[in-house]
Amino acid sequence: MQAMIPLPHPLLSTHYSPDSLLAGIPQKVKFTVTIGHYTIKSGDALQLSNADAMPVLYHPESKAVIYSNTQEKISEASLTVQSSEKITSISLPMVPAYHVITFELEVLYSPSVPICMMENENLASKECRKKGKEKETSHNSMTTIDQKVTIDCPWSIYSTIISLTFSVPFKAKHSLLSAGIRKYIQVCVQNMSEICFQFSENNLKSSDIYKDLSLQPLNPKAEQHIYSKQAIFFVWELKWTKELPPTLQCIFSMNFCSALSEDHSFSLKPYTYEFQLENFFTLYNVNAEISPPLGAEYCKTGSLCSLEVSITRLLDLLYVDKDEALTETDGYCTTKLMYEVVDDSSNWAVCGKSSGVISMPVAVQATHKVHMEVMPLFAGYLPFPDVKLFKYLPHHSAHFMQLDADSWIENDNLSVDKNMDDQADNSSIKSRGSIHSTASAEHKGLPMPRLQSFSPGQVFNSSSGMQILVIPSKDDHILEVNVT
């Protein structure tokens, strides 16, 4: 790649390969000054503005090569580079007119990833604040960052701006893992480049100071090598003694260097990845149990089996529970939840009502149980059906509450559990006329109840991954054989 900047007298250009500028390790950029009829005098220097994220590295053995206008090498001269906090000054050797000067500088761009909100699966759009101008390259899937550098030349009163494109060799992502109420934070770092790196001193900390919260590392302390396209996972257990904060801002950092480089005299900034977790504590535990028919030892294909779903509240009332679904009477709080039993693998047939709305007490160890029947369709060790849990947010409107509640619930393909909600007593004897009247009200713009997914980690399914043995049903066949 080559960028040409026309100036009144000389021409200044930079040369580098787009694939060679990797963030985080020293990279060489070649500068070429085509002098023209201007004569470089003693004291002439290029003034480069220093960006905080991209210092210019100086080596005493740096040389400037002088060529004639026919590209014939004439001589070499020592290159003097002086750096301050904001400016890097490059003293040019004295050169007569119509010559060319070339020299190389090493620059180092520090890669980092800004704070990114914990992704919510039910959001249609996911946005992340980014520093600088970043874009995703299609050929190697590495994020590229354009870094602007301002250069003041002695032969012009105008500043020259050049753009250097760096590719970030790492891609980081995080996930929240749960085991009941225990929480683990996992950070995955993938090497997207073609070279090998060496990692050391990985660390995860909270940007805010919480005395009652700690992050216990579960990672090896030894240095690790990460090869091209390889990923390394780091895990910390989140421990606390009092109530968890509603929001946790985390900063992951690690030291790194090229595994092939032997020169570590320069000081590299660690790679950092910032992210934020919200509402990550476990509110509910969902457990499913499947029992064979009465008198049978095992479940059989084609036979109805009993499925019991237990929903248990693990925490008392929190601020996240204070929404439209919360009802408080004399200090006793309940909330509306919707459960749904689905089997995407088509191993089970859910017989009867597979979803419903329950009124759940907001108290520790409050439990609601739902019973239904399922039929195994295949033999073998079958995984349990999935049990999904949602917040059920009804519409609170005076005009809307005058209508029969079960009409719009039934019209919205939702059912209310009769044991927990007194409003559902007559849901099974709805007339066709009442359903039609509600449907017509919906067409008039009447708001309907809505479902809201829980944040990742708020619902723990303790029966996820469990299997049960299903044996084939007994099937007698008569085979007639004639022997002559």
**Rg over alpha carbons:** 34 Å
- Taken as a percent bin, the fraction of beta residues is over 45%
- What's the level 1 CATH class of the largest domain? Mainly Beta
Biggest beta sheet summary: 7 strands, antiparallel
CATH architecture of the largest domain: Sandwich
How helical, in percent, are the residues?
A: under 10%
Looking at CATH, the homologous superfamily of the largest domain is Immunoglobulins
Give the overall silhouette.
elongated
- CATH topology grouping of the largest domain: Immunoglobulin-like
Tally of discrete structural domains:
3
Low-confidence stretches: 1-8, 115-134, 397-444
Computed structural class? mainly beta
Overall mean pLDDT stands at: 77
Cα separation of the termini: 89 Å
| Counted beta strands | 35
Number of helices: 3
Characterize the structure shown.
With 484 residues, the protein is mostly beta strands. It folds into 3 domains: 11-115 and 144-167, Immunoglobulin-like; 170-278, Immunoglobulin-like (Sandwich); 284-395 and 451-471, Immunoglobulin-like, CATH 2.60.40. The protein is 5% helix and 48% strand. The protein has helices at 398-401, 405-411, 432-443; strands at residues 2-6, 11-15, 27-34, 45-49, 56-57, 63-68, 73-78, 80-83, 87-91, 99-107, 112-117, 133-136, 143-152, 159-168, 170-179, 182-191, 197-206, 213-217, 224-226, 231-240, 247-258, 271-278, 284-291, 299-300, 305-313, 327-329, 332-342, 348-351, 355-361, 367-376, 380-383, 386-393, 450-453, 459-461, 467-471. The strands form 7 sheets. Strands 1, 2, 3, 5, 6, 7 and 10 form a 7-stranded antiparallel beta sheet that branches. Strands 4, 8, 9, 12, 13 and 14 form a 6-stranded antiparallel beta sheet that branches. Strand 6 (63-68) and strand 7 (73-78) form a beta hairpin. The longest helix is centred in the last third of the chain and has 12 residues, at 432-443. The protein is elongated and about 105 Å long. It starts with a strand and ends in a 13-residue tail after the last strand.
